[in-house]
Amino acid sequence: MNLPSLSVVLPNYNHGRYLPTALRSILGQTAAPLEIIVIDDASTDNSLEILSGYEREHSNLKVYRNEKNQGVVFGLNRGLALARGEYVTFPGADDEVVAGLFEKSLALLARYPQAGLCCTVAEWRETFSGLTWHMAAGMAAEPSYLSPDDLVRLGKNEKLCIITSSCLFKTEPLRSMGGFPPELRWHADWFACYVTGFRHGVCFVPEVLSLANLLPRSFYQSGHKTGEHRQVILKLLERLNTEAFADVVPRLRDSGALSLFAMPVLRLVAGRPEFRHFLNPTLVRRTLRRSTELQAKRFFPAWLARWCLNRFYRLPGQRA
Could you say which of 132, 172, 191, 243 has the lowest number of CB atoms within 10 Å? Predict the structure, then answer.
């Protein structure tokens, strides 16, 4: 089978210690990407030295350096603008893609060209606590195309989960929706995944093909500990309330997908009249479960938190 072309966009800022692992995992894929676009965000460590060595050895790898630090979302959008592939993926510079991710995802996307993206199960590793768990483990039992209505059903059953680190996006739909909105900061990728999914449906491969390391000072982790977080969620709701996303909102609302943001989003949709159309039993139920999970991780002893995570986020048949 002739597979569609793929661009890999790898944003990097001071992740020199992780880059060799990330790049080896990309270069070792069974389906080679058309190009690997590295956006270095004015790193001050040894990242450029490492990247220069890989650039010399691999003709499909090109490094672009920002003159000043612009942030992760800027790097994602710069890479998206440069991408020439029919599909594009955005692995983290501190993460790994498992062998087979590109080939299996592209083969499924070739069968279902209407899909806006393909995602897989992702293993999340919290480096500062030692906890690991699987995200999206219950989406489907076999490689599948999931329509927007299927995603709503999964959301109501608390099985919907699209993880950016394992996603291969169809390039043009992602560009046409504006890419990653900078004002949404840590949640710009969530927005891109779910808008794409609820518009076009997704392909899903039920295997762990992405390994994500959650670092204590990562972009994602730091954002959840600041007062700015509520303002980012407010901007996300305001963006969804615009005419441009009117086609997406009913399915997103019915699925309860906003529950990822736990109590801050529930307070906003309950307290602001312009957002109350998002409020329904599914959102309340899923938000309460999400809040319980977050509290368990924070306050339970490690052994009990690990048991809880493995109870809800583990592939069938796999041992904790």
Answer: 243
CA nearest neighbour of 255 among 287, 223, 218: 287
- How many domains in the chain? 1
Classify 142 as helix, strand or coil. coil
Which pair of structure tokens corresponds to residue 210?
Answer: 């992405």
Q: How far is CA 237 from CA 182, 246, 248, 283, in A?
A: 14, 12, 12, 14
Residue 294, domain CATH: 3.90.550.10
Using a cut of 0.70, tell me whether the model's pTM lies above it.
Answer: yes
List alpha helices for 46-187, DSSP H: 47-57, 72-82, 101-111, 148-156, 171-176
**In the 8-state DSSP scheme, what is residue 59?**
T
DSSP 183: G
List, for residues 154-195, the tens digit of each pLDDT value.
999 999 999 999 999 999 999 999 999 999 999 999 999 999
**Nearest one of 300, 237, 296 to 264, comparing CA atoms:** 237
Q: Percent helix, strand and coil across the chain, each rounded to 5?
A: 50, 20, 35
Nearest Cα to Cα of residue 94 among 182, 186, 185, 220? 220
Q: Are 118 and 108 in contact (CB under 8 A)?
A: yes
**Cβ partners under 8 Å of residue 236, min gap 6:** 184, 187, 191, 261
Does residue 317 sit within a domain?
A: no
Q: Which helix (H) or strand (E) holds 126?
A: strand 117-126
pLDDT tens-digit readout, 232-264 = 999 999 999 999 999 999 999 999 999 999 899
User: Is 320 inside a domain boundary?
Assistant: no
What is the distance between the alpha carbons of residues 274 and 281, in angstroms, rounded to a whole number? 18
